[in-house]
Design brief:
The chain is an alpha+beta fold and about 140 residues long. The protein is built from 3 helices and 6 strands; from the N terminus they run ααββαββββ. The chain is globular, with a radius of gyration of 20 Å.
């Protein structure tokens, strides 16, 4: 009986450890999405963002997806993380959005916002493979 229980425990541990390796595939997939957002042409139509969403200079929106009630808009900013962060924060505030939280680090930043019955976050990451192009990831959900 003890041997059976020991084998069962080892089998469960083996499955758990094997599951840990699965994150590499997801990282690669996320990297592919980031690369696509950084290299695609501009969207042919306007992204699904709130009506008074500011037009931010140097931003190109390249793709959009729906994840349940959340719209995700991605693209790139021609410049560095600090300039992108400052532009988004300033322009969202000027357009009447409430800035709930913002943080900036060397290679990424976040600006969380709320307004027009919506809320979300602008995440900026230095992942486009260039020091003068920043990955832009915007979440937009019912607020």
């Amino acid at each position: 009986m003890r041997a059976t229980r020991s084998w069962a425990i080892l089998a469960v541990l083996g499955c758990l450890l094997a599951g840990c390796g699965g994150s590499d595939a997801k990282s690669t997939e996320s990297g592919d999405e980031t690369e696509a957002a950084c290299t695609k042409s501009a969207m042919s139509s306007a992204p699904d963002l709130p009506k008074s969403w500011p037009q931010i200079e140097n931003v190109t929106y390249t793709q959009q997806s729906q994840q349940g009630p959340t719209t995700v808009v991605e693209g790139y900013f021609a410049g560095d993380v600090t300039a992108a962060h400052d532009d988004f924060k300033r322009e969202l505030d000027s357009a009447g959005f409430t800035i709930l939280f913002d943080e900036i680090e060397d290679n990424d930043s976040e600006v969380s916002w709320k307004g027009q019955g919506r809320s979300g976050q602008v995440a900026l990451r230095n992942e486009c493979g260039s020091s003068d192009k920043v990955f832009v990831h915007i979440t937009n959900r019912p607020g």
